Amino acid sequence: MGASKLPGYLLGRVVKAAVVVLAIVVCNFFLIHAAPGDPASIIAGQSGAADAKFLEQLRAQFGLDQPLHVQLWLYLKGVLTLDLGFSHRQQMPVSTLLWDRLPATLLLTGAAFLFAVGLGVTMGALAARRVGTWGIPSSPCWRWPSTPRRCSG
Asked: CA nearest 101: which of 114, 113, 87, 119?
């Protein structure tokens, strides 16, 4: 691919990625709405007050009294502006919850990554030393009894 075609190619890839992300967000919106039950009654049930006036207040607060296309627009606007909403269970914004838990998540992910890379490189080096012999199969996963048979040959 020539250097003159690269910007057009990259632009096409970015546009395709944006279309895929948009489709996923819209599918997520409709899957949430396809779930059984009324979100307002679920929230009201958690707080212990399920009278009709409170349910109407909740529907108005969350925009559930709006037509579906308006709800979709508000949802898309919230996603695009990274407004993740408010957690009523934790009584704080969702973005704050995510930022508070990010260090532990990164620590766990980093540790798992280092463990996987270390184990993978070690096992790969051991397998490479014994290539072509009967001592070790091409995949060393036969050593663990919980491994499915299709992995062990």
From this structure: 87
Count other Cβ atoms within 10 Å, centred on residue 34: 7
| Residue among 139, 110, 117, 116 nearest 127 (CA) | 139
Strand runs labelled E in the chain: 86-87, 92-93
CA–centroid distance for 130 within its chain: 40
* 3 state DSSP class of 115: helix
Count the helices and strands in the chain (H runs, E runs): 6, 2
| pTM score above 0.85 | no
- The string of pLDDT tens digits covering residues 95-124 is 999 999 999 999 999 999 999 999 999 998
Taking the alpha carbons of 36, 40, 41, 42 in that order, is the dihedral positive or negative?
positive
- Separation CA 103–CA 140 (nearest Å): 34
Instruction: Give the three-state DSSP class for 86.
Output: strand
Contact partners, residue 44, CB within 8 Å, separation at least 6: 50, 54, 55, 58
